[in-house]
């Protein structure tokens, strides 16, 4: 996928917080560096038919970067994330996104022999809804006619 391609040397620096074997300190440092990146690549938990981006994040770095920081933001969003309105976006987060994220992070914790401590309630820390940005060219959204991610 895209992350695998980005991990190959293409003449740019990647702040890969998901790299296997890095310490928690390095993970946090890479997330912080991402806030000042030239290009921040991510997705959105939901996008409304009127164009609002609805997101939740555990640490807050992803939603912070979407709102402010990196020079450019590239969001790649599958059609499965289109919802009618902001409330439907919050429901999607509660019913689809949070449970799958809990499963993902607890599975990783189990593989590292760490305590599985995440629940649907405590994984949802920072909510951000983006209506627009001052720089109309800062966020580029690519809507893919496929189901991508959760």
Name the beta content range.
15-25%
Number of helices: 4
Compute the CA-based radius of gyration. 16 Å
Tell me about the largest β-sheet. Answer: 4 strands, mixed
**Which strand order do you get reading across the main beta sheet?**
5-2-3-6
* End-to-end CA span: 15 Å
CATH secondary-structure class? Alpha Beta
CATH fold call? Rossmann fold
Task: Write down the overall geometry.
Answer: globular
> SS-based structural class?
alpha/beta
| Tally of individual domains | 1
Sequence of secondary-structure elements: HHEEEHEEHEE
Level-2 CATH architecture:
3-Layer(aba) Sandwich
Number of strand elements: 7
Overall pLDDT level: 90
pLDDT < 50 stretches: none
Helix content: 25-40%
Task: Provide a descriptive summary of the structure in words.
The protein has helices spanning 2-7, 24-34, 61-67, 86-111, and strands spanning 39-42, 46-48, 53-57, 72-78, 82-83, 126-130, 139-144. It has 150 residues and is α/β, with parallel strands linked by helices. The protein has one domain: 3-Layer(aba) Sandwich (Rossmann fold), CATH 3.40.50. The strands form 2 sheets. A 4-stranded mixed β-sheet has the order 5-2-3-6, sandwiched between helices. A 3-stranded parallel β-sheet has the order 1-4-7, with helices on one face. The relative contact order is 0.18.
